[in-house]
Design brief:
- The complex is a heterodimer.
- Chain A is of the alpha+beta class.
- Chain A has 3 helices and 6 strands; from the N terminus they run E-H-H-H-E-E-E-E-E.
- Chain A has one domain: Thiol Ester Dehydrase, Chain A, CATH 3.10.129.
- Chain A is 23% helix and 36% strand.
- In chain A, strands 1, 2, 3, 4, 5 and 6 form a 6-stranded antiparallel beta sheet that branches.
- By secondary structure, chain B is of the alpha+beta class.
- Chain B has a domain of 104 residues: Roll (Thiol Ester Dehydrase, Chain A).
- The longest helix of chain B is centred in the middle third of the chain and has 13 residues.
- Chain B is elongated and about 50 Å long.
- The chains are: A alpha+beta, B alpha+beta.
- Chains A and B meet through helix 1, helix 3 and strand 2 of A and helix 1, helix 3 and strand 2 of B.
Chain lengths: 142, 149
């Protein structure tokens, strides 16, 4: 968001380009529920979450994906440059009350496609050392 | 209740248009921590070549889920939402969604497969502007647990 945007020429496969921590608390989940229209009670109601076998309230997978996409967009310098973004939801992110959960996001360069003018970032997102996203890949136009 | 595999291959008619507003984009961007000013300041968005503020990449889920409701709320599909887990999601943007867009979505049921007591339901929402231009493709897979699992 600040400074110049990265260029294809300066990137190599394997480069780590972003490392960031994002945090989420219950208030954040309520905000996301309202903004997204996803009111599944497992994301705000402890009783319901436990009743369906979860450890407690968990973050929306789509919140995590959205927060990770923002990390990519900030790196690119233009949110509209994120052409393709896919993830698998491998493990839930439990969100305590009181307190918050922290997700560690790391992006590395997976593919540099000079002809297409794009780079593929491979992302990891972990919470307490557990991977919460799998096959998280973003194709960014630079 | 059992997921009805005969729904695989279905294509729904275009749904009612979703009108994208600046304040909805702002609200969604704040919720996911998207701080880029192209989401909130039309001048910043125009400087990047867009007609108005643009939505964060995953905002398309808000548009897609209105179309997906046609399947999830259809009793004949046999999807018990309390047994659903989100398995994967993919967004392909043909161009960014921006404020002022009127978006029409066609929902496709790409596949329904069963394995180990789970029904995997893959949907594809093809989102287009009201002039017919393609805007985004949203592919989503839900895992539906069977009874007693």
């Amino acid at each position: 968001m600040t400074g110049r945007s990265p260029t294809l020429a300066e990137l190599s496969v394997g480069d780590e380009v972003v490392r960031r921590q994002i945090t989420v608390d219950r208030a954040r989940l309520v905000r996301y529920a309202g903004a997204s229209g996803d009111f599944n009670p497992i994301h705000w109601n402890e009783r319901v979450a436990v009743a369906v076998g979860l450890p407690g309230v968990i973050a929306h997978g789509m919140w995590t994906m959205g927060a990770v996409s923002s990390v990519v967009a900030d790196w690119a310098g233009d949110p509209g440059a994120v052409l393709d973004f896919q993830v698998r939801f491998t493990r839930p992110v439990p969100v305590p009350d009181p307190g918050s959960a922290t997700v560690d996001v790391v992006a590395t360069v997976g593919v540099v496609d000079v002809a297409a003018g794009t780079v593929r970032l491979d992302l990891t997102a972990t919470c307490d050392g557990v991977r919460v996203l799998g096959k998280a890949q973003a194709v960014v136009r630079l | 209740m059992r997921v009805n595999a005969e729904y695989a291959g279905r294509e729904y008619p275009p749904n009612a248009a979703y009108e994208v507003g600046r304040e909805k984009i702002r609200e969604f961007a704040q919720a996911v921590g998207a701080a880029h000013r192209a989401h909130t300041d039309p001048e910043v968005a125009r400087a990047l070549g867009y007609p108005d503020v643009i939505a964060p990449p995953t905002f398309a889920v808000v548009v897609a889920q209105r179309a997906e409701a046609q399947l999830l709320e259809d009793p004949g599909a046999g999807i018990d939402f309390s047994r659903v887990v989100h398995a994967d999601e993919r967004f392909t943007h043909h161009r960014p969604i921006h404020a002022g867009d009127r978006l029409v979505t066609v929902l496709h049921i790409d596949s329904i497969t069963e394995r180990a007591g789970l029904a995997m339901v893959t949907t594809r929402a093809e989102i287009a502007a009201d002039d017919g231009a393609r805007v985004a493709t949203v592919v989503s897979t839900l895992a539906v647990r069977g009874e007693g699992s």
